[in-house]
Amino acid sequence: MRVARSDESYDEAERARIDRIVATRYGLSPFEATKLRGEAENLEAEAPDTVRFTRAIKDAVDYEHRIGVIEALWQVVLADGVREAEEDALLRLVSNLLGINDRDSALARQRVEKAG
C-alpha cells in the first residue's frame, strides 16, 4: 500500500495488481483478495514509519522471500506503466531496509518487467 500510494496516484490498475498478487500468493478468491486489500489499506494508514515496518518484515521473513516481497512491490510500481521518482525512491529505501542488495532488487524488477 505504501509503495502504491507513494506517487499520490493510487489507481485501479494498482489496486487490481495488488488483488492479483495477494490472490496468487495466498490462494484467495478475488473477493477475499479485495477484502484483504481493503484491510491492508486501513492498516497501512495507521502503520508505523517505514523503518519500523520493514524491520518487522526483515526479522520475520528469510532473504529469498524478501526478494519475493520486492518483486511484488515492483509489480505494483509498474502496474500503471509509469515509474515515478517517488516510487523508485521508496522502493530503493525499502529494498535497503529489507537487506536486499541493489543487484537483487534490479534483477527482481527485470523479472517483473519481462513477465509483463
Tally of structural domains? 1
Q: Approximately what portion of the residues adopt beta-strand conformation?
A: under 5%
Shape: globular
CATH topology: TerB-like
So, CATH architecture? Orthogonal Bundle
Number of helical stretches of at least 4 residues: 7
Structural class category: mainly alpha
Question: Could you explain the architecture of this structure?
Answer:
- Helices cover 78% and strands 0% of the residues.
- By secondary structure, it is mainly alpha-helical.
- The chain has a single domain (2-115), classed as TerB-like, CATH 1.10.3680.
- The radius of gyration is 13 Å and the shape is globular.
- The mean pLDDT is 88.
Provide tags for this entry:
116 residues; globular; TerB-like; mainly alpha; Co-chaperone DjlA N-terminal domain-containing protein; DjlA_N
How are the SSEs placed, and which strands pair?
Layout: H1 2-5, H2 12-26, H3 30-46, H4 50-60, H5 63-78, H6 85-97, H7 102-115
Helix pairs in contact: 2-3, 2-5, 5-6, 5-7
Give a nutshell description of this structure:
It is built from seven helices and no strands. With 116 residues, the chain is mainly alpha-helical.
